[in-house]
Design goal:
- The structure is a homotetramer.
- The first copy, chain A, has about 300 residues and is of the alpha+beta class.
- Chain A folds into 2 domains: about 160 residues, DD-peptidase/beta-lactamase superfamily (Beta-lactamase); about 130 residues, Probable Glutaminase Ybgj, Chain: A, domain 2, CATH 1.10.1500.
- In chain A, the strands form 2 sheets. Chain A has a 5-stranded antiparallel sheet with strand order 2-1-7-6-5. A two-stranded antiparallel ribbon of chain A has the order 3-4.
- In chain A, strand 1 and strand 2 form a beta hairpin.
- Chain A is globular and about 55 Å long.
- Chains in contact: A-B, A-C, B-D, C-D.
- At the C-D interface, helix 10 and helix 11 of C face helix 10 and helix 11 of D.
Chain lengths: ~300, ~300, ~300, ~300
């Protein structure tokens, strides 16, 4: 079993940590720019409940794009594959996460996949409920179940900061509204979406969520099936093909595990049938991925032969 | 062990075969348009050397785009990862295989990945040798070793037909020549490339090649390492992220195995550590993939839980 | 002097009118779809005040995109060339009027020209005032002065219908807001923009506005300079290079006069130093131009050698 | 009459000449990089045969893109409007002159207009003849007639240099060959095209050619109609909408005359019914236009009110 001691993980973390200075903290969302670029922490969660970790593990970050995998799972559970994929596509794209070009050119204007912003907004739009509050409660409750952590909450400050500045997401929403992909009030959808992005977790939470995907939906402690196996499988597929923005292809070659990153510096990893990985490291590379987090995963992948390929 | 009898495979083939009529044979290369759209055959090769098959298994098809995986392996072996990926990228794209748009927009004009035509041409350009003949011999000899079939040859007729009509590939080559991605004579490169595409195989050959990738480069009979494990792994990664043209994302969700298709109707599949799959079925869907071949893989995937995810 | 008799104009109108059946009325704005596709009317206004006309000349249509020229003139008068062109570009584009692709790709994300929707929205954004009402009064007052018609008003019904359905324009606005091209409340800007588009005129009004541009800003009756000559010249330049959506180039070859069309079927024409032309014909071709109106201008252009080139 | 003395023109030239240092000589064609960036000369040719000039007027430059207008005229005379515009479009584009993006996206893949490289290649393809030599003789003879200069020849050195390096043009040609826009041997077409681009003229020749367009095809001295009036008109239209690469819109606003530039630094101007202008100034701005030449035209335009608009 890999990472049998915290010491081993500590030493890998130390090696990766020197790369934090090559990245910088996201600044396009004002509230994110306050993060400490030097932070780095990692947790690895095994099917038997053992968990190893290193670094400032109590440091919380917001989920940001990592939440896209979670709402995708929820939407698939609520509305089924056929409906979900009538609104968003399956195909990866070499474009940046906020690109609007493909949205226009593809036909019938449906977002190429659920991991780009347009696709994620279309997925969040599917989450059912009578109000933003009810729908958000559904999402955060699901995160609580996945992480086994009842204390999970969201940062109202980050949500507000994002809500006020996400004009590009508004543009994507109105484009999709024009083309019939979404039909709710855009401000309500963005309210819900920015809240979902602002759910706070630490690397332990992320590792716990990761193990559920790794075990095809099964909670390792209680053995409860938190999502159907095929839903977990679909999510892991998108994590491989489009989980790391437009560096997904390179990540698949270099690391080769299902993973999803967020611009707050988090990475959720799921090594099929082996373990869940949670990383928090706010310094980002130019594609929007945690620069030291990627390095850490590369070291782990080569040391413990994690690649699925 | 799946497919323990030819009868079982026969019945799956029969079920898939009815979908042949939903596709049509490639007609943009004159020599390909003569194929029989009703043909369908499959072979599955196991690590212990057992092989099961069904359909018109002796029917030969040309490799076409399947050859892209093979030259990628060869180039990686000859020139190393660093060099190869200084000339072609890692990222999947939602565009059709012959798109020129991304080529222009990406920076520094390097093809997005080695599975689109531009990228594959750049890879073939890397194959070393003093003449087209010498370089082609190197490629076809590698195919012979991978398939364990010394009889493998190529169709001079198909090669000629493609050579004469591949103006779009010439456009891609000159675009790359302008941008310093390739620097040889374009007609020579196309001569080599169209020959590589015209190598003839049947589904048994494809299954034999598939098992080598599945076993990380190891020949199952002789136990010889035909390519380094990391080369096989890289190739399988691209087969997952971009192996089925711009239906790769959907294929990953529905089937979930490394696979590469060609417009002659072939599919090369490699189920990691389990088996190699070869399919031949010339009737294509609108993305350029064997329509009944895809169906057959979907049935196999669901029946024997092939998905890696 | 051309068109010396109404009879001559009537006969030209009759010839053009048979083309109405080749087009269809705009239906993407519900309120526009009620127009009569068979309507066609034309007026020609001379520098000496003589006016000839034919057809259902009292029939009112809304300005729609024709208003883009008028707000451009107003913005140039209020804020000057340098400021205006720091926010919108000069270059024509082969894309459809509502395209968002170029917006993203151009750098620094400024709309390519003031005649595409994005550019026109950026121009309307420049119109100064303390409220939408005040700014709109400024625009409609300018239309009244240009047309010499104090009775000009706007259709609250069309404005409301457009406001409720213009999600694409909202998308463009938020995209520009993200990139700092506009900074006001998007709903307010759209309120103003849809009102400006809904100003109602007939072909006589359009011909009167046209003569002012033709005479470099001078009102033919009062001899008052309603806009500086260089402003009129700039507007006429854009009418030539981008006045007829993505059929502007063909129109320049076939007709060769400054003209601006709108999706309600209006065309404003200005033959430099000769006369103003107003046309109303709601049946549109697939580019969004009045199909019979274009035909009518082609006949006039060939009969009276109108081309500037 | 403007520019009644060489002294006046000299002083305008002097004012413009200081801008030469803001540009740089084209270096993507090796043979062009030898030009002197400080050179600037201008000639103005009047309908009565008077000609004024200033600067190093005997300095020869190659036509480059200016030749596109001349072959367009020739093709229109040989094959007629209908045929020519079945192969190339009318619409300006905001893209750079060598862009391949629009070529792919437009339908049915026909070049957007005859002034971008793809369109100009398609036009040259139309020039009839039994050999490159015969077709080239036709083109150069036409240039001789237009300029009234029997001494005109071409630079074999520049032609060879361009032929050897124009891989991007080869890419465009093969793309068009694939789509049926051209069907001749690409190397032959490029041989002809690079020769046409390498025809050498000085600013006097350009001014003489310009007056022919300005007078709707009539030679001012002999009064011979060198091309039909409608052909001259069509050419002038494209000079306005797409004559100055992707700065055409700005040039139309700032100067407002039909003009065509080339990357050797030449500008051909035609002020309708007034005069022809020839400019030679090899230092280019970032769009590929003579930087001091543009300045010179701006001064002339404002001083003598040249704008057509």
């Amino acid at each position: 079993m890999p990472c049998q001691s915290n010491e081993e993980l500590e030493s890998i973390l130390l090696e990766a940590k020197q790369y934090t200075r090559e990245g910088k903290v996201a600044d396009y969302i004002p509230a994110l720019s306050k993060a400490n670029p030097d932070d780095l922490s990692v947790a690895i969660y095994h099917p038997d409940g053992t968990c190893y970790s290193a670094g400032c593990i109590q440091e919380k970050i917001t989920l940001q794009s990592i939440s896209k995998v979670i709402t995708l799972a929820l939407a698939l559970m609520e509305s089924g594959e056929e409906y979900v994929f009538s609104k968003v596509g399956y195909e990866p794209t070499g474009d940046p996460f906020n690109s609007i070009v493909k949205l226009e050119m593809s036909n019938p204007s449906k977002p190429l996949n659920p991991m780009i912003n347009a696709g994620a907004l279309a997925v969040t739009h599917m989450i059912k409920g009578n109000s933003v509050e009810e729908r958000f409660r559904k999402i955060i409750d699901f995160v609580k179940r996945l992480s086994g952590n009842e204390e999970i909450s969201y940062s109202a400050e980050v949500a507000k900061s994002e809500f006020e500045t996400s004009h590009l997401n508004r543009a994507l929403c109105f484009f999709m509204k024009q083309h019939g992909i979404i039909n709710e009030d855009v401000e309500e959808l963005l309210d819900l979406y920015t809240k979902q992005c602002s759910i706070e977790v630490n690397c332990l939470d992320l590792a716990r969520i990761g193990i559920v995907f790794a075990l095809n939906g099964k909670e390792p402690i209680t053995n409860k099936q938190l999502m159907p196996a095929h839903v977990a499988r679909i999510c892991k597929t998108f994590m491989v093909t489009c989980g790391m923005y437009n560096a997904s292809g390179e990540f698949a070659v270099r690391v080769g595990i299902p993973a999803k990153s967020g611009v707050a510096g988090g990475i959720l990893g799921a090594v099929p049938n082996r373990f869940g990985i949670g990383i928090s490291g706010p310094a980002l590379d130019d594609k929007g991925n945690s620069v030291a987090g990627l390095k850490l995963l590369e070291i782990l992948a080569s040391k413990y032969e994690l690649s699925m390929f």
